[in-house]
Amino acid sequence: MPIIDLRSDTVTKPTPEMRRAMAEAEVGDDVFGDDPTVIALEERAAELLGKDAGLFVSSGAQGNLVSLMAHLARGQELIAGRQSHIVLDEAASHAVVVGASVRVMPERPDGTFDLAAVREAFRDPRDIHEPITGLVAIENANAHTMNQPLSVAYTQEIAAVARDGGVPLHIDGARFWNAVVALDADARELAGPAESVTFCLSKGLACPVGSVVVGSKDFIARARRARKLLGGGMRQVGVLAAPGLIALRDGPAGMIDRLADDHANARRLAETLAEMDGIVSAGDIAQPAPGRLDPARVATNFVLFKVKPDRAAFIDAMARRGVLVVAFPHGQIRAVTHYGVEAADIETTIQAAREALAEIAGVPPQPDPPAGNLAGAAA
Ligand SMILES: Cc1ncc(COP(=O)(O)O)c(C=O)c1O
User: Fold this and answer.
1) Which listed residue, 19, 162, 198, 277, has the most CB atoms within 10 A of its CB?
2) What's residue 313's pLDDT?
3) Which of 137, 132, 119, 159 is nearest to 79 (CA)?
């Protein structure tokens, strides 16, 4: 039975062209700065986001961590979203490795913070009791609010708040390109207000490995040192960077423009799920209006929803029909569209959901598990 894997866009496999490019990549020792393919990828990423320099890293989590290390001194404090990946899903690396504390801001359903609350969250550097605020981080797109894209205007506003407080702004842009496409924004404008941006190649852009961090030359020099400290200095790593150069090409030759197809597929799935009895909205930041799932919330490639009567039984019934979805925090289920999932697969998924709901209709509901992330859901 063919499997339709909607657990995450991290399950994407490289295109045949990417595999060929990996085999044929020109390589060198990247710790010596000798790998031409890595250099080309870093330059291309920096150019696209309007920054001076880039750094190829192993993962989104490493990109965020080297950025925090480059921005923050030990004992400083970071302001970040309560449900952000940096706060929830990076094994507290801000504390363990950076030695920073975090002040969490509640996200609103559109993924933004209340700007007055962010201003309030800044510490008083004259008070010796308090840590010193050193960074504001936002997540764009914003995963827990159903991957809402944060606008250029908001990014400028939050950057101004950070600047007024004398600190830089970092964007965890694991799905930055989904935001760019959903907003029809200029990537340089969306990245412009931030001192650093991390984006992932290995999610919707379908590369097998890696993320890129961009920022000023000085920032990237500090991030490069941090990457080395973490054991992330890699050698003939052009074989991994080569697919990134394909993904970041302009137009249909690259992987950015096609994200619009994923967004359309997610919207179609949500519109149909919303009509089914048994599919309900979460009634929290992902789906603020309790009741029916609201397909208008689907701005990118995530569909977050709840089912009645029982989540585990639904996930299992879908899997037996060849459709994989995943448990997400707060009793939700997540379906993510991506490269390799076609419009026809969405119709198969819709049929599977109808059958699964009919099959589990009599199952006694189980209490939701604790709100933390379940295996795999964090991606
Ligand atoms: C918002 C966000 N940031 C960062 C990451 C980390 O990316 P990676 O899995 O490549 O470490 C992820 C995905 O897992 C994510 O969803």
Assistant:
1) 198
2) 96
3) 137
pLDDT of 375 reads 46
Complete DSSP assignment for 69-131: HHH--TTEEEEEETT-HHHHSSTTHIIIII--EEEEEPPPTTSPPPHHHHHHHS--TT-TTS-
* 376 pLDDT higher than 70: no
Arithmetic mean of pLDDT, 11-34: 98
The amino acid that residue 33 corresponds to is G
Which of the listed residues 58, 66, 172, 207 should we mutate to test ligand 1's pocket, taking the one with most ligand atoms within 8 A of CB?
Answer: 172
Burial grade of 367 (CB within 10 A; 0-12, 13-18, 19 or more): exposed
Testing ligand 1's pocket by substitution, the residue of 68, 82, 83, 200 carrying the most ligand atoms inside 8 A of its CB is 200
Query: What is the arithmetic mean of pLDDT over 41-59?
Result: 98
State the Cα–Cα distance between residues 367 and 207, nearest whole angstrom: 38
User: Strand, coil or helix: what is 299?
Assistant: coil
Alpha-carbon span 194 to 63, nearest angstrom: 15
Cα separation, 379 vs 365, in Å, equals 27
Q: Which residues contact 125 (CB under 8 A, 6 or more apart)?
A: 132, 133
CATH number of 12-253: 3.40.640.10
Q: What percent of the chain has pLDDT over 70?
A: 96
Q: Where are the domains of the chain?
A: 12-253, 258-360
CATH code linked to domain 258-360: 3.90.1150.10
Please tell me the distance between residue 64's alpha carbon and the centre of ligand 1 in angstroms. Answer: 9
In which residue are the tokens 């393919």 written? 37
Mean of pLDDT values over 143-154: 97
The residues that bridge with 170 in the sheet, in sequence order, are 137, 196
* pLDDT for 378: 61
